[in-house]
Amino acid sequence: MHQVKTTCPYCGVGCGVNATVAENGTLSAVEGDREHPANFGRLCVKGSALHETLGEQGRLIKPRVDGEEVSWEQALSVTAERLNTLRAEHGNQSVAAYLSGQLLTEDYYVANKLFKGFLGTPHLDTNSRLCMASAVAGYKRAFGADAVPCNYEDLEEAELVVLVGSNLAWNHPVLYQRIKVAKERNPLMRVVVIDPRVTDSCEIADLYLGIKPGSDAVLFNGLLAWMAAKNKLDTVYLERHTQGVDDALSAARQSAGSIAEVAAACEVDAERLETLYYWFASQLHVVTLYSQGVNQSSSGTDKCNAIINCHLAGGKIGLPGAGPFSITGQPNAMGGREVGGLANQLAAHMDYDTPGARDLVSRFWATDNLVPRLPNGPGYKAVELFDAIARGEIKALWVMATNPAISLPDAAHVRAALEKCPLVIVSECAANTDLLPYADIVLPASGWSEKDGTVTNSERCISRQRGMLPPPGEARHDWQIICDVAKQMGFAEAFDYTHPSEIFDEHARLSGFENATTTQRLFDISGLAGLGRDGYDALTPIQWPVNAQAPNGTARLFVDGQFATPDGRARLLPITPRGPEQRLSQAYPLRLNTGRIRDQWHTMTRTARSPRLMNHRAEPFIDVHPDDAAEAGIKDQSLAVLSAATGQYRARARVSKAQRRGEVFVPIHWTDCFSQNARSSALIQRIMDPVSGQPEAKHGAVALAPL
Ligand code: SF4
């Protein structure tokens, strides 16, 4: 029996896990790693059930081509040959990849290098687009870089924590626990929850604002205008470290009006609203923590910037216990961003329009003499990518560790696109998913507890995930599969890695290569280059940047008021609030909210294996306000159907006053593999934020009826 330190594969908290491997080679127990700075020994119910979700049953164990089991040799050569043929016939940009925040950074790195660097296509995006793309875009517009300024300790050191669009108690439970304990220790600490639903996170709230969905930007514009009116702006900070306050204030005043007007627009109590404004303005140590409720919107980026504006205007950033803190959904959403896993990114936090970046990356990857060279500009973002497949423009798609047939909006459209796509390659752990019937080539991949690599959590902390069990059957690691295909395609030299430590080393070297761009300098982990296999194996959690100036990592960003913009100043942006694009109508009069439940993860391929996790909510459901239920003729626990322009969802109704009148909530987890007609994505239209490309998953328009 021995213990292995690794990291939980679920949410963006990124908790450290001590896993016990028994004499018989199985993983017999898990407990929280007391030395890991994300959780200090805590685990939530999902993390503590990790060892109950393993085993060969239900795993993909053999490669398949056109429905037939084949050897790896055949699978790799057919994959390479078909990709090469389609590229030759239709051009480099006819091939695409769709990745996942479940992949490890090393997997992401080689996939990005292959597609953008060597196949010459920019069309590589990730399911992180569905989770935090608006937060990324908001940070970039304000700070010049996708850089989370805070860390988890800030949540404990704050005098005020404002949760916006985040049910932390269910979706990031260990952080919720940390805030709860900090609040018990510090009676002066306050927590505010801004959310259309009364959630379990309200248990620690001193103030709750049951906001009208989509009105967040009005609320934060109102806060900015109120701070100015009450002389609560930090004029010294604004003068020294920012640009754009006048325009931001003018837009805020235009949209906000009086407290009563803002309260009416947000449908919240005016007195409570003013209390929030007073608390925010009178404390320096304020963290605003926001998540999918803000991001998954057609104006998500603007909402993020409306929040950031208030922090910059009050100088509440770069200090202990202060800052606008986006909390990511997936375990490695940030690691994917680091290597360039979003279609608008190139590599190492550099975009296509980052001055000098394209040449720098091309020199580093030695693609200067390669035809084609790196693409010139961004590729299709997730929803656009599947539209391009539907148009016949993209001919080959490689999906890794995710299930767009379930998770993307308007799933019927996605499925029709996949049906039409001449080549669909799927790398996957689970043997039964809604995506696999569309795959021409199926490649069995290793999973958590089997693979080695790194992940980066929401506070920029890089941690090791460690392999401790052999992959089942013939499953291989994603980085190996990608590199083997690359070699077959003729790029043997550039993909000749023998261990993930070599990929991590290259990734770390690229982050500091020539030290040429400001965004690159901010994300510089060159201090982690040259670790070798032993150093990589022994790597302990560390927050980027990690370089000669910060060899032990960096707890907090922007402490000196210097940002990653060309002039070093942060930007306040003028925000004009916009409501949801999915309009309510007579036919579809209810606002649909979607989200996770406490004990499940994504499409349940892992968590559904644990009976105790399934006990929490054993089946899909529709949460509905008593008045809406009565109007539709629906009783508690009776079967009901939600209809939208794009499809239907059938489940049992749970009548609850935690829902606002006129709004319903459904979980995102159930797939056709578990329950026919209970896919939340069937109800969401293909509408995106114009800046971030993030779909408007929190704002469907539906009708409710008895089944
Ligand atoms: Fe895993 Fe997140 Fe739970 Fe931590 S809080 S144990 S990372 S699911």
Automatic annotation (TrEMBL):
Transmembrane segments: none annotated. Its cofactor is Mo-bis(molybdopterin guanine dinucleotide); [4Fe-4S] cluster. This is Assimilatory nitrate reductase catalytic subunit. Keywords: 4Fe-4S, Iron, Iron-sulfur, Metal-binding, Molybdenum, Nitrate assimilation, Oxidoreductase. The keyword Transport does not apply. It comes from the Bacteria. GO terms for molecular function: 4 iron, 4 sulfur cluster binding; metal ion binding; molybdopterin cofactor binding; oxidoreductase activity. Belongs to the prokaryotic molybdopterin-containing oxidoreductase family. NasA/NapA/NarB subfamily. One of its GO terms (biological process) is nitrate assimilation. One of its GO terms (cellular component) is oxidoreductase complex. Residues 1-58 form the 4Fe-4S Mo/W bis-MGD-type domain.
